[in-house]
Specification:
Two copies of one chain form a homodimer. Chain A is mainly alpha-helical. Chain A has nine helices and no strands. In chain A, helix 8 (142-163) packs across helix 9. The termini of chain A are far apart. The interface between A and B is large, with 42 and 42 residues. Chain A binds a DNA duplex (30 and 30 nucleotides) through helix 3.
DNA sequence: CCCGTTGATGTCAGTTGCTGACATCAACGG
DNA sequence: CCGTTGATGTCAGCAACTGACATCAACGGG
């Protein structure tokens, strides 16, 4: 006979996402989440640093993926190209878990507190990207700016992926947003294309 | 005889910044802040929504400034040019209160919780900028991306302004970062300039 | 000049997020 | 068979934040 059900972490995550979606983040107590997962509040805080982190603990894996993609980009690739490859890799992960990622994004978008946490996670991703670029020999502030701009592109693409209906392919949205950024920073005036 | 000392809000802000700088954000209680300002905890929460907001209540004024600058930019100005003007205007405000702004930035940089709040404030600025661009006829996602990229430039510039020694002129740092962004998105390869 | 209103502040009790210290007890290994 | 391990529970406590109500100088109409 098993003393405890397996995958406490996963059960807590599922319970939290469901309750945040049903009642909103602010109207959900940690005690409720724990109860739905068949655990206690104290155990929740053993797995997650705080009430928000339950939706973000996967971020470190994403970060490693991004860094690996930049590091593994072709030698001749320009910094922004390397970042673009990384964003596509990250996008593929989200697309893979579409049925989890999209509701999660909606829950985050609905809560200022969760948005704060998302922004700092994205900032951490940007910092890691910048680091990886520096290791490729890209000097600062170019490295930081490329990384920040890349994350901005990613954010815009994911937001459109989450809200647009009918939903489009994330990879395509990332590509489009990147092209749009290039156009806009090239100094093109809005009403007169070309 | 005055019943209360004037400018409770300002006293609370000063007390909070001083205590955050001395002991760190996490090691400071709201009760301590209130006591130093000669007030009670309850009064603190009447002025500020939470313990972090005390360092950010000026953000709405900055937002109005940015929007006004974009709206008032010359008719022919490209989106990124309009945003650049806005960033310079915002930078001028920070430079004006240099002796307050720089320590404040350092306190924020030292605390993850305060960084979270700063990021969401900057995201709000980006959203407002994007709105102002749309009112100039810039379509999405160009408007959003221009605004996001502009805020990234601003963030990088302010960070350098806060940490570099000796401190350089913020206006110049903003200009340089913007040029750097343009170069980087133009596809320039890192080791081979030109 | 008096009195009712106003508004900034104080007091107090309560909820919730979060933490440290200690207890429990099946599983596992020697 | 027993000692250790590790995931979990229990409990007490602090700090952030909130709602309800009290206070009382200042202000203005009568």
């Amino acid at each position: 006979m098993v003393r405890w059900q397996p995958d406490s972490r996963g059960r807590l995550e599922q319970a939290a996402l469901a309750l945040y979606a049903e009642n909103g983040f602010e109207n959900t107590t940690v005690a409720e989440i724990a109860a739905r997962a068949g655990l206690t509040e104290r155990t929740f805080f053993r797995y997650f640093a705080d009430k928000r982190e339950v939706l973000f603990w996967g971020a470190s894996a994403l970060q490693e993926l991004l860094v690996a993609a930049v590091t593994g980009a072709p030698k001749g690739a320009a910094p922004l190209e390397a970042v673009a490859l990384a964003l596509q890799a990250a996008g593929a992960v989200l697309e893979e878990r579409r049925d989890f990622s999209r509701p999660r994004q909606r829950v985050i978008a609905a809560s200022p507190e969760l948005r704060e946490r998302e922004l700092i996670k994205l900032a951490a991703l940007a910092a890691a990207l910048a680091d990886a670029l520096r290791q490729r020999g890209v000097p600062d502030p170019a490295a930081t700016l490329t990384a920040e701009a890349g994350i901005a592109v990613f954010r815009v693409a994911v937001e459109r992926w989450t809200t647009e209906t009918p939903p489009r392919d994330l990879a395509r949205l990332i590509g489009e947003s990147l092209d749009e950024l290039k156009a806009v920073t090239a100094g093109k005036s809005p009403p007169t294309p070309g």
